Each structure stands twice: as structure tokens, then as C-alpha cells.
Amino acid sequence: MLVFAFEPSPNVPRSPAKVGGEPLPPGPAIWPACAKCGKPMRFLFQLPHRTSVLLDFAPAASVLVFQCENPDTVCMPFDPDSGANRVLAVARGEPAKMTGGPSAQGAYPDIGIAFIRAEEDSAALSLDENAATEAQIKARERAMEDAAWSKAGGVPIWPQSDATPSCCGERMHFVAQVHSETFGLSFGDGGTGYLFRCARSCATPYKFLSQGY
């Protein structure tokens, strides 16, 4: 299945696809705070609406992802429903600098995202190991070694078990994932962050979670 791998690239001013640094919303946006501790969240990454690279955020022009990293509390930013992470879907408008952040930890290093066309064995990656043969399990292991762990499209690659969230009573659609080691983000031990979209048109269509080893 076609995917677009995310690879670090030298950032350019006001890049619409980036990790860390200062968020660059395409329109008005308010810096989110953690629902549990009330502190400003830390900006992780942003992705633009670009159907040519399997990122369909319409009617939004971009999504910006944040998570709580308050060292004094346990706010569970890995949980999509904890209120300790947030996905802002921002419509195009008059761009303005976001206020209210960043968090006490400061910004992550500013890194651009390059989109590289790639392929993956989605069938092998989607395998249920509990009902698989030894040969199928080995095929999945090979597929995981060959696959891009930071990407748009394809299927989510889980270091543990499938944790696809639900919204409006249905499993959400996988959008993208970002690996901590590729971009220097904090998702636990060798963790990966996952972005999902609701299968319906609801008021809060996106969720984010992370999973590590």
C-alpha cells in the first residue's frame, strides 16, 4: 500500500509541515492547556491539508498537535481521552502568533518534515498475532522492519497491541504517525505518536495517542 514516509529535513521559514519550534497555524488558534493540570501543553508537530500526500484535513488547512509534559503531575498524555493532549484543526484565515505557551520545558528542536513516497505490506502489518501462523508472524516482523515508522497513510504500526480509538461509536480512521526517535519527541521508551480522524463529521474529529515499548 502507498504511504508517504516522514523524514527530517532542514526547516524553512513558515514551513507548513514541521516538528517542534514555534507552531505556525494558518489562521487564528489558541494555545491549548492540559485539562488535568491546567498548564500549557508542549507543541509537538503540525501537518498541512495536502491530499497529494494522503493528508485530508478539509475543511481545516492544517492540524497542530500538542501534549502535556508537566513534570510535576501525571496527566497521561498517551491516552487519547485524558485531556492531556490536543489536536487543533485550524482553518485558513489571518495568521497570528499563538499566545499562552510554550510549556515550561520550552520548544522541541525545529525540524521540517519531508514527504517521501514509500510502500508497505499493510496486510502483514495488520495481522492478529493471536490467530497467526509462525510464517505469518515472521512476515509481520519483516514488514515492521521495512516500514516507515513516521508516515501518512497505510495502517498504524503498533509496538504493542492495536489501540485504535473510537469516536461517535466507530473506530477512527488512521491519518499519520510520528516516531519519537526520528524527530526527538517524548513518547516514552522508543514510542510513537498516532493521529486519527473520526469516521463521521463531529465537532472534535481528531484524537492523538502514543504508545511505547
Q: Tally the beta strands.
A: 12
Q: Unreliable stretches, pLDDT < 50, 5 or more residues?
A: none
SSE order, one letter for each helix or strand:
EEEEEEHHEEEEHEE
Specify the biggest β-sheet: 10 strands, antiparallel
Assign the CATH superfamily.
YwqG-like
Quaternary organisation: single chain
Q: Mean pLDDT, as a whole number?
A: 90
Query: Approximately what portion of the residues adopt beta-strand conformation?
Result: 25-35%
Count of spatially separate domains? 1
Shape estimate? globular
Tell me the CATH topology.
Answer: Hypothetical protein YwqG fold
SS summary, helix count: 3
Q: Give me the secondary-structure category.
A: mainly beta
How is this structure best described in words?
The protein is mainly β and 213 residues long. It has one domain (2-211): Roll (Hypothetical protein YwqG fold), CATH 2.30.320.10. The chain is built from 3 helices and 12 strands. A 10-stranded antiparallel beta sheet has the order 5-4-3-2-6-1-7-10-11-12.
Summarize the helices and strands and which ones pair or pack:
Elements: E1 2-9, E2 18-19, E3 42-48, E4 62-67, E5 85-90, E6 111-119, H1 122-125, H2 134-146, E7 151-152, E8 166-167, E9 170-171, E10 173-179, H3 180-183, E11 192-197, E12 206-211
Antiparallel strand pairs: 1-6, 1-7, 2-3, 2-6, 3-4, 4-5, 7-10, 8-9, 10-11, 11-12
